[in-house]
Amino acid sequence: MRIGAILRPALVLLLLALVLKPAWFTPVFAPLAPEGAPVIYARSSLLSLSLSHLGLVAAATTAATLVAVTLAILVTRQAGEAFRPLSRTITNLGQTFPPVAVLALAVPALGFGAGPTLVALFLYGLLPIFENAVTGFSTLPPTTMEAARGIGLNRWQRLVQVEVPLALPVMLTGIRLSVVISLGTATIGSTVAARTLGEVIIAGLLTSNTAYVVQGGLIVGLFAVLIYDALVQLEAHLVRRTGG
Amino acid sequence: MIEIDRITKTYDGVNVVDAVTMTAETGTITVIVGTSGSGKTTLLRMINRLEEPSSGEVRINGMSTRATKPHLLRRRIGYAIQGHGLFPHHTVARNIGAVPKLLNWPKDRIRTRVDELLALFSMDPAQFRDRLPAELSGGQQQRVGVARALASRPDLLLMDEPFGALDPIIRARAQDDLRRIQKALGSTIMLVTHDMEEAIRLGDRVAVMDSGRLVQHGTPAEIIARPATTFVADMVGDVERPLRLLSLIPLSEVVEDGPATGKALPVDASLRDALSSCLWTGRTAVPVERDGAVVGRVTLDAIRARAELRA
User: Is A151 in CB contact (< 8 Å) with chain B?
Assistant: First the structure.
């Protein structure tokens, strides 16, 4: 907790500086850049790349959450139980496909840009959210569920007032995993012209400019660490609230 | 009045509950007692349709339970279970107010009712209202569970082993509380237990179940004095019978004039308490007091006479 209290704001400040004032870091990255090459990526603003990167991840994760949680709710009802193995296979398939392959396959259909990346991130994000949501919904305290039925909540009220809130911490764990995977995976979206921080890394790789690679990698890494941490805090808060 | 009319539940060709017919009067506690697998819980769960009966019918105040949708029916029937089943993410007040909220009571009426019930269960509303269930002791959680079941003034309160998870001292207190509150509110209660002691302590009527059948239904005294089958006799316990019988009789029934020495017992104590007190202190009579004033005595001979009476 102590270390977190110092480290967290320090990392946030570092990230803000890297995104908003990249020029400050010229002396740090200079030794990594080849002779005469630019040290700091300047072809487009890092802020707009970051926002677009986060936007893609947010959109894909939101869609994956909606689909995966809906599916999890359906297969944890008595009537939908038979579909659980099938849903599991489908979501597993999403994870088995390498994102690069999905990108390659989606480009002919969706064209270059954000589309194929969204599809790849969406498919890749389904599995952890689905698995965790199924676990969350099938490990609810039985006496609480029995009481919810016994005092007269109908199916919908039980779902909204009891099941979802109680399964939320476990679901959030899945969402957190999915977000962190997506933050990293989104970088390869730049190979099909999606605007992400991958652009910086790929530019570095193409021109053998390690300074670019480190710069892009560092920003993506810091985003991942800080978002992961924020979601862990949120989960802990929810668990405390439910007395878990 | 609750009428259970030839109700049967069949699972895989086996009658778990077999044509049980029974009537419970308004304002009384009926305790259904039996061993595990006797069908007592299934019987209880068929009353609020958590289980649908295979045949037969339950009527509450003359109206069939099949006339209403199950979840609407359940809002009129209180339900308290072993391990309380409180919503862990809701405060005590929200837990207790759950059914009134389902019935669309106005907010301030719910708040008044919650405070009233907390006070009734000897829990300071200001202190407990906003706590989460995890912040309460086991006994307090159980009380909140029963308070939730009573919140909407239901026609009937169903309780499934409500005190099963409590330690003996807290359980005895919870039983006394239930008795007191039931008297105060005039509630109709059906309670399931495997504990004959609890049945005799709480029940106005005791219904004994064995392998799905109702084998005896009567007052605790009848069950003890004239068990209908060997199973009932086993449940009551031969050695315990006279003591159980004495535990049902208050001192006020046999108090007589005359001298006695030593520590006095209140008139609402049972003959079992008096017998115990006699044996322990070597007396042949104990003084009886009402509101601190001695009103007479109970003698060992009088106790013996009552114990022998129905043997």
Answer: yes
